[in-house]
Amino acid sequence: MTRYQKNILISEIGESGQQKIKNAKVLICGAGGLASGVIFNLCALGVMNIGIVDFDKVELSNLNRQYIHKTSALGEFKVLSARKTALEFNPVLNIKTYCEKIDENNVDELIFPYDIIVDCLDSIKTKLLVSSAVIKTDKTLVHGGVDEFFGQVCTIDKTSACLACILPENAFSDENNTKKGVISPCVSTISSIQSMEVFKAITSLGEPLKNQLLLYSGLEQSFKKIKVQKNPNCPVCSK
Ligand SMILES: [Zn+2]
After folding, report:
1. In-domain check, residue 232
2. What are the DSSP calls for the chain, one per residue?
3. What separation in Å is there between the alpha carbon of 183 and the centre of ligand 1?
4. Is 137 a domain residue?
5. Band (167; pLDDT cuts 50, 70, 90)
6. How close is the Cα of 186 to the center of ligand 1, in Å?
7. 179 inside domain
8. What is the pLDDT of residues 93-131, one digit of tens each?
9. CATH number at residue 205
């Protein structure tokens, strides 16, 4: 409890809130840039039960932003490298790793043991797949996306607009999902906002970013919240 003294000092959290944080089960989809910040934030908050799913290995070009991985981890599976760094931070964490690509066949099974799912993915197709799976359950999804100097965050569950309602139609084709550049301060800002959404979902404090998309511009240092609605013709959540 000494470790989390500064959390517990906040009256809205207290010991009971810290207990909720300790018991929460969070699955992080992706082990790249967004996941780097989310993993560090959740471990520091005191989330003890974390799953990480990713099938990639650490490459040199990842290290402009994926700071959970050290140079010595080049060539290692990202999930194992991320777990190792997290355990150096706190050896008593319970971190499960899933070294696999998320697809239609494994998505339900992967999310099943967890309460909150964090979208730290870079493929729009996989993001939509995870969103579709989460809204069939009582779980919460915290979506995040980044490119160049921009980012976005929202929280999704079965009562809110889903990711397919929110993303523009042209985002559905992975052809438009061209690999753009991105810089670490922007990724790290978005990952911190995602971590705050996870914290709020665990503790039921504050207003979740449901039916709202938070847009960030690093160059302008501006945040804009836009209202989004469930699309009555959404191919995913209107059924
Ligand atoms: Zn929808």
Report:
1. no
2. --TTHHHHTSTTTHHHHHHHHHH-EEEEE--SHHHHHHHHHHHHHT--EEEEE---B--GGGTTT-TTS-GGGTTSBHHHHHHHHHHHH-TT-EEEEE-S---TTTHHHHHTT-SEEEE--S-HHHHHHHHHHHTTSS-EEEEEEEEBTEEEEEEE-TTS--HHHHS-GGGGSGGG-----B-HHHHHHHHHHHHHHHHHHHHT-S---BTEEEEEETTTTEEEEEE----TT-TTT--
3. 30
4. yes
5. confident
6. 27
7. yes
8. 999 999 999 999 999 999 999 999 999 999 999 999 999
9. 3.40.50.720
